[in-house]
Amino acid sequence: MGAGQGADQAFLNFLDDKDMSRICPHCNYARQADDKAPDWQCPACEKAYDKAGSALPPEGLRQLGSAVQAERRGFGPWLLVLLAFAAAFWLGRPLLQQAAVAGDGAAASPPEVRLYATEWCGYCKLTRQFFAANGIQYVEYDIEKSSDALREHRKLGGNGVPLIVVGDEVVKGWNEVALRRLLQPWLRG
User: Fold this and answer.
1) pTM of whole model > 0.70?
2) Buried/exposed code over 18-35 (b: 16+ C-beta within 10 A; e: otherwise)
3) What are phi and psi of 23, to 5 degrees?
4) Buried (b) or exposed (e) across 73-92, using 16+ Cβ within 10 A?
5) pLDDT tens profile 141-169
6) What H or E segment, with its residue span, contains residue 103?
7) Do strands 113-117 and 163-166 pair parallel, antiparallel, or not at all (unpaired)?
8) Three-class DSSP category at 62
9) CB-based burial of residue 149 (10 Å sphere; 0-12 exposed, 13-18 middle, 19+ buried)?
């Protein structure tokens, strides 16, 4: 044995005495002098080097390197899959709604919409704006200018304006929720 080899052996013996040369049997991490973990614990995988002085498990049962990392994945990949499904559902929703409307033969053509109104009425103006913004075609009857329109308005139980007839349904007054419910398949956006 040469002089260089004897010095190397002396250095290894010094390291064994100081317990600084520990290599983790689980992840193969070589302990550094400035590691903060306790002497009995690997700083990288936080497992004990050997429990109660017992021998290491057989070679085939040891978990090394990547096996330890695979354990720590947690629920992150599942969360990513869940987010992907949620995004696909959210983005595909308009396509599903269009298919439902196209598949329903009775819903293919919009119902007749009639508006009984006056020129000065603010809620009548809101109703007109709602129909224009959503692309709804309607027929307007001014109950102050047409006695036939006033008569029909009264037959429908109208006491005020606007009075909106969607198909067979009558909406008394400005009620956006009811209009959206009745016209949902034909609304834009």
Assistant:
1) no
2) eeeebebbbbebebeeeb
3) -115, 125
4) eeeeeeeeeeeeeeeeeeee
5) 999 999 999 999 999 999 999 999 999 99
6) helix 76-103
7) antiparallel
8) coil
9) middle
